[in-house]
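Need tokens for this chain, all 393 residues.
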Amino acid sequence: MIPPVLPTYARAPLSFVEGEGPWLVEEGGERYLDLGGGIAVTILGHAHPALVAALEGQARKLWHTSNLYRIPNQEALAERLVAATFADTVFVTNSGTEAIECAIKMARKHFDAKGEPERNRIIAFEGSFHGRSYGAISAAGSEKMVKGFGPVVPGFDHLPFGDVAAVEAAVGPETAAVLVEPIQGEGGIRALPAEDLRALRALCDRHGLLLVLDEIQCGMGRTGRLFHHEWAGITPDIMAIAKGIGGGFPLGACLATEAAAAGMTTGTHGSTYGGNPLGCAVGCAVMDIVTAPGFLDQVSRLGGRLRQGLEGLVAAHPEVFESVLGEGLMLGLRCRMPAGDVVKAGYGARVLVVPAADNVVRLLPPLNLTEAEAEEGLRRLDAAAQALEAAAA
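Here are the structure tokens for all 393 residues:
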């Protein structure tokens, strides 16, 4: 018999009832160190006082009006994002998937508005993950994502991740844009080198294409800059963000230059809930904290120290771990044992990590994790590895 909750998730046998900072409390009272961050979402930990205050304060005033009317909190969040990024304009959504859908529509509408509707194909990359809607799974194109859901949305050309020469060869008269994650999260913490990101920017400029970045997972300070593309010294034309921008509240956004968004006029896109007063109040509080002086420098410092500790784990447990991947606090351990077994061993050691492709487990902790908490996480991962080695002996 099918359960009341549609069984589309392979859930762990854990149920958390309370959280504070990087800690989660299970029904039985056990405390778990959360190094997964709700898949890179709770960037300030659980129940951060400033976010709680923003949410509670707004909840007592107004929850929802719809986008039939001006929403001051939405305008304030958009202004903060524009001031801190390349963007001239922002469409606020409830999720990363919706942000990607907006980005895809915007890229195609851009050329239609210029009188070039035939330019509607988007180059995307193998191993990517952009969400679960039809547009998003079509952009990713993997068999795992699209099998059984055909026909998918046409107009995507899938190339090997990071193969700039293949992109150059694939550009044709119907090409509109290149869509890429600077670091693939679900794909196994695979980072695009800065020189490749610069090469894609130059290629788009040469061919008059739009560069669309998916920074849903790697953005919002995760790698030590507000957005990861800043390390390469380039800017996109369109960018989808989500996850960390709400700190745990469902929130996303599609950012764009004025030129890229020129076709998005009244009536071309919309959302009932997107940009609601509650979500945007929290988003403004997140932006205030993450953009405060020194915050991102601390992310970089802690990321370096945590990576050093993970390298030590690899050296200490060569039968369990192979290598360390990633940047800042978007880190991965490529495993020699099945990654799923490593995740389950973490449950036994009361530490939470997140599986990914390519036999990788991800560490996506809060950006305000302390050094002591990072050390505790390393100790618990060490205990998990020891348990796996003992079981295999």
